[in-house]
Automatic annotation (TrEMBL), chain A:
Protein known as: GTP-binding protein
Organism name: Komagataeibacter melomenusus
Catalytic activity from the UniProt record: GTP + H2O = GDP + phosphate + H(+)
Domain CobW C-terminal: 234-326
Family (UniProt): Belongs to the SIMIBI class G3E GTPase family. ZNG1 subfamily.
Keyword Nucleotide-binding among record annotations: yes
Automatic annotation (TrEMBL), chain B:
NCBIfam families cross-referenced by the UniProt entry: PRK09061.1
Record protein name field: Amidohydrolase family protein
Positions of the Amidohydrolase domain: 43-236, 240-475
Spans through the membrane: none
Pfam families: Amidohydro_3
Length: 328, 496
């Protein structure tokens, strides 16, 4: 087995899409630039909201102009799919297909709408929703006791798979802790501070092309990320099976291990449809399962990579539980 | 001598349950004979082996352009109506259509969205419905705010004027106006009830969790029907009910059984279904087949198996956020998912409607040109090209879940019956009867199929051999035949 490290622009199933939301001034553009700089060998395209007047965000993003596409009608039309469809189709039709797409939601738009639009089955096979990231101003959270009382903010938090906290660098350790606790109280556990190390830490969580599920059956080993150095503080398990998976047990296993998992991705062959590859993707506590393309078509081999924090993820039990999903 | 005679086809009239081999004669824009036609026509069309049915009526079509008409023509549609969002001023919208080429009959509902934008933000509302929503988002008060009593009066007054100008009912896309209050919506429903016109609702919430669940939204809609007497049509029942479709369908059936005037539409495309926690693929036969199955499951459920990981379990039990959200996107290979889609698509008395999107260019503008075939870069959703033909291919031909005549009822006659209270001319559409409009779809029932997909959205459907709109051929021998406006406006006509 060789690792999957396709050249930039190679056709490898669906192009992963990251959605980034957050309020105006929270630091979304900074974060997007950090992502772009972190994947120098990848062709990334960014879709930004443009309300027609001045295309500010598009100018601030460190990509060639042709790779930054303004969404003319803003996110309400994403929710109606029109703009989103045409923009993504346009990007996928370029001579060199992007390796990943970043969609920036304007500060006032609802991430949930974009997420819903991207979860259309027609989209999924070509451009699959990868992760939803909410960038939030830590200083605001610290200073505004009613921060989460605003419904739009609460919804943006709820819709984010990962939360990025910005403007934390001037805070005392106690203040940082207080902000973190407020974020945790919103039911978010995967939060990162937007500083120089944050994106490095997240590289293995962003974009499924960082994944490599080529592994020896049943043996756990460190994750190999194709673009980044591995990989503290994460631990990972590569699991595979030649026999189909009992999906109901699999769901229970994922549910039980969800608190310790940050990401998982793979190809599944379920016992109720043993001939059909299903692409499985877990980001935070959100799982997507859909018909997809198996680059090793014909092998019918289920394989999944799981990633969690070192010290939290229980690799041994996870492997045992996964083995129990294999249908007799 | 007739203008056109369609010969020797399988005649289908869903209202009278006519299903015989015969002919149809047309003079001008009307059907003048159905059955065995003795005289000849200036144009004789051999329909041997083909179905002759009323043209399809799509009451949820956002396209409203020559390009959209052409693609829908190949999908069997002869009347295409934008009712979910609507427009204001209504008179202006109809006037605009006369300045473009429209192949299919067209019509519009009164736009609650436009009234809110005008009254609550003062922005210009003179745009196509979806463009208007996008353009107006800079000032979000129309989306987020509860309207004052004065504003509600102004909104309903604008909408009433829209009804007087011929708007065919009222679009209530509540999901896009989450800030609007129940009092305001109830006023709008009362307005609709007073004029005896339908409302078309995109329910306010789509979620399987309370609060703000789909069930809550349907219960509200049923409440409006009961408390105001309004006719409430539910848009895309399939996409907004998610995993609760069985329960939602039960609630709607109960409401209908009590005489409430609620109707339902669906399109036959899978949408993402989100479910929390519970196993979705649960197979009742599993324990018998595997010998381990439920033992293992139970242990996981009650925790005995998990003793080695007490921390994990405790976290899982104590924190609601540890529940996993599952999105399923796989109608094709998943029986359970397909069953759920079937509930909305095959809902008794429910209709097929496309929710067809406008054809959009890479710069975000709506394609208004006349190139044929459509430019490759023009993009919509595949359902803009293949909703009805996909329904016929999958449900009638492949799965035999619906008969030809029942399928035709869901595509033409039933849609007409939903809106004829508002637009009495619709009593002449959706029927293959003498005196009715010659809006006719002639198709090969064996080969009819959608062909559009994500990478080729502008691929027209196949199987429609002839399409007549007001007696004028739009498709002949499977090819696009019309370049002039064969479509006519459908308008509301009220007695307030």
């Amino acid at each position: 087995m060789t690792a999957l490290t396709p050249p930039a622009g190679a056709r490898m199933g669906a192009v992963p899409v990251i959605v980034i939301g957050g309020f105006l001034g929270a630091g979304k553009t900074t974060f997007i630039n950090r992502i772009i700089n972190s994947f120098p060998t990848r062709k990334l395209s960014a879709v930004v909201n443009d309300f027609g007047a001045i295309d500010i965000d598009a100018d601030l993003i460190n990509l060639g102009r042709e790779q930054v596409i303004p969404l003319r009608n803003g996110c309400i039309c994403c929710s109606l799919q029109g703009d989103m469809l045409s923009t993504i189709r346009y990007l996928l039709d370029q001579p060199v297909r992007p390796d990943g797409i970043i969609i920036e939601c304007s500060g006032v738009s609802q991430i949930g709408d974009v997420k819903t639009a991207l979860l259309d089955a027609v989209f999924w096979k070509e451009a699959a929703l990868d992760s939803v990231i909410c960038v939030a101003d830590g200083q605001d959270i610290l200073e505004d006791p009613a921060y989460f009382a605003q419904s739009l903010r609460a919804e943006q938090f709820r819709d984010g798979d990962f939360i990025i906290l910005s403007k934390m660098d001037q805070m005392s350790p106690e203040q940082r802790q207080s902000v973190r606790e407020r974020v945790l109280a919103q039911g978010k556990r995967a939060e990162f501070v937007l500083d120089n190390t944050a994106v490095q830490q997240m590289e293995n969580l962003l974009f499924s092309f960082s994944f490599d599920y080529a592994a020896t059956p049943g043996r756990s080993r460190g994750l190999r990320a194709s673009d980044a150095v591995p990989v503290q503080p994460f631990a990972s398990l590569a699991w595979e099976s030649d026999r189909p998976i009992a999906f109901d047990i699999f769901q229970q296993v994922i549910g039980a291990h969800a608190p310790t998992l940050l990401r998982a991705k793979g190809i599944l062959y379920a016992s109720h449809a043993p001939e059909t590859p299903a692409v499985f993707q877990m980001v935070g506590n959100r799982v997507t399962v859909g018909a997809g393309h198996d680059p090793e078509a014909g092998t019918h081999r289920s394989r999944i990579v799981f990633i969690g924090y070192e010290g939290q993820i229980d690799l041994r039990t996870l492997r045992t539980d996964m083995d129990r999903c294999v249908a007799e | 001598m007739y203008d056109i005679v369609l010969r020797n086809g399988r005649l289908i009239d869903p209202e009278t349950r006519l299903d015989v081999i015969g002919d149809v004669a047309i003079n001008g824009s009307a059907i003048v004979a159905v059955g065995r036609v003795e005289g000849t026509g200036h144009k004789e069309i051999d329909a041997t082996g083909l179905v002759i049915a009323p043209g399809f009526i799509d009451i949820h079509a956002h396209g409203q352009s020559l390009a959209a008409d052409r693609m829908q023509a190949f999908d069997g549609v002869t009347t295409t109506l934008e009712f979910e969002i609507g427009s204001l001023p209504v008179g202006h919208w109809y006037e605009q259509q006369t300045k473009t080429t429209r192949l299919l009959n067209y019509g519009i509902s009164v736009s609650w969205v436009a009234a809110r934008i005008a009254v609550m933000t003062g922005q210009d509302i003179n745009h196509a419905p979806l463009t208007l929503m996008g353009r107006s988002i800079r000032d979000r008060r129309w989306v987020d705010d509860v309207a004052t009593d004065t504003q509600v009066s102004a909104i309903t007054a604008m909408m009433e004027q829209g009804l007087r100008e011929g708007g065919i009912g009222i679009g209530i896309p509540n999901a896009y106006l989450p800030g609007a209050g129940v009092k305001e919506v109830s006023q709008i429903c009362s307005l609709a009830a007073r004029y005896d016109v339908p409302t078309y609702t995109h329910i306010s919430f789509s979620s399987n969790i309370d609060p703000r669940s789909s069930v809550e939204a349907y219960t509200r809609l049923i409440g409006y029907a009961g408390s105001t007497g309004a006719r409430m049509h539910i848009c895309h029942f399939n996409s907004t009910s998610l995993m609760d479709i069985e329960r939602c369908a039960e609630l709607v059936r109960n409401a209908q059984a009590q005489g409430l005037r609620i109707t339902v539409e669906a399109y036959p495309y899978g949408t993402a279904s989100t479910v929390i926690g519970a196993p979705f693929f649960a197979d009742p036969a599993f324990p018998q087949r595997t010998g381990q199955g439920y033992d293992a499951l139970q242990r996981l459920d009650n925790g005995q198996h998990m003793t080695s990981r007490e921390d994990v379990l405790r976290a899982s039990a104590e924190k609601a956020d540890n529940l996993v959200l599952w999105h399923f996107l796989d109608v094709e290979s998943n029986q359970r998912h397909r069953d759920l889609l079937d509930i909305s698509v095959l809902y008794p008395g429910g209709i097929i409607a496309s929710d067809a999107m406008p054809w959009t260019m890479p710069d975000g503008s709506t394609y208004m040109g006349d190139a044929w075939p459509l430019p490759d870069e023009a993009v919509a959703h595949p359902r803009s090209s293949g909703t009805f033909t996909r329904f016929l291919r999958v449900y009638m031909n492949e799965r035999k879940a619906v008969s030809l005549i029942d399928a035709m009822a869901k595509c033409s006659w039933l849609p007409a019956t939903i809106i004829e209270c508002a637009a009495p001319t619709m009593r002449r559409k959706g029927r293959l009867q003498v005196g009715c409009d010659a809006d006719i779809c002639v198709f090969d029932a064996d080969t009819i199929s959608d062909r559009a997909e994500f990478t080729a959205m502008n691929r027209p459907a196949v199987g429609v051999k002839y399409l007549l709109v007001n007696g004028q051929p739009v498709i002949e021998a499977g090819e696009l035949a019309a370049n002039a406006s064969t479509g006519q406006p459908v308008r509301g006509c009220y007695r307030a």
